[in-house]
Amino acid sequence: MRQATLATVLTDSRCLPVASESKSASQTYLDKRVTKSQRGTKRTRSQRARERLQTKEHLVGLARELHEGELADKLERCHSRLSVLTCGRHIARIIPNFTCEFRLCPDCGRRRSRKLQSKYLPAMRGFMLHRKVTPVHLVLTQTHRKENRKQSAKRIKDSLTRLQRREFWQNHFKGGTWSLEFTKDKNGLHHTHLHIIGFRRKFFDIELLRGEWLAVTGDSHVLHLKQIQDIATGLREVVKYVSKPLDIRRFGAEDLKEFLGLKNMRMFGTFGEFRDFCKDFEPSDNDAAAVSELESFSRDLVEGCACPQCNEPLFDLRMSGKELPQFYEQTESSPPGKVGTSWN
Ligand SMILES: [Zn+2]
Ligand SMILES: [Zn+2]
To answer: How far away, in angstroms, is 12 Cα from ligand 2 center?
Structure first.
């Protein structure tokens, strides 16, 4: 039934909007997930810091279970001692004693995603300006099969390559970025999604894109598309999966073992015209200013500098990584002007 509808749409060159049909189970699943991540359930910094600690403890436990002692030690050391530059109410900069650079480490993932943002945001702004394109966030999914993560990732990336070669894609998009997200449903089945920032040259009916995706995957038409209003937010949304490719707290030792086997798999990349644009792109001073919102300027801050948010002088607090959530809590609840001096 669905196929017939798609075929009709594909042959209909007038591109009339298609009446929405009742959603299939998989679509409902995706839509819930997407809206959930897009709503970005607002958690406080302290809650997020506490979650990172829990994730890390969980990972250390799994690594020990697998007798990966070296990995467990590295994870435990990573961000275990911190030098926190603060005015008492705001945290301007956190310098860790050590970073493990393990791909599932939530602290290192945050750093990695910030790096990607400061690298690609100026290029994206430049590209949008020069090529007159509008960014969209596209989520592509595939049906699940009996395969491991590596095979699943390869399958969806190969589908994307085929999609890019098609006339429809080339007529409507000028490249973009992709990142991989792995999820597991409650039945333990792997789902792999591609999150894409696509630079759209002109509007199209989403049903046409569904038909194209079905044509390259052979069995999947489930996708989600939304316009990106603010490219900084859109990029942050997409690189989130680089720092958090999967829900680690639902991870077992077997999952970690499998992930360790994926060593060289890329989780983020650029493609099409945007990829070529990035190769030659040199950020101007204006672009550098635009990135300052990503805290990259905080690199130059030292003790005694004015807090970028309130101008009070910054001082250096030493604490353990485990104390950070509590410190965030204190900054969140302290009234304006009140400086938390009870630390150190
Ligand atoms: Zn780390
Ligand atoms: Zn401040």
So the answer is: 59
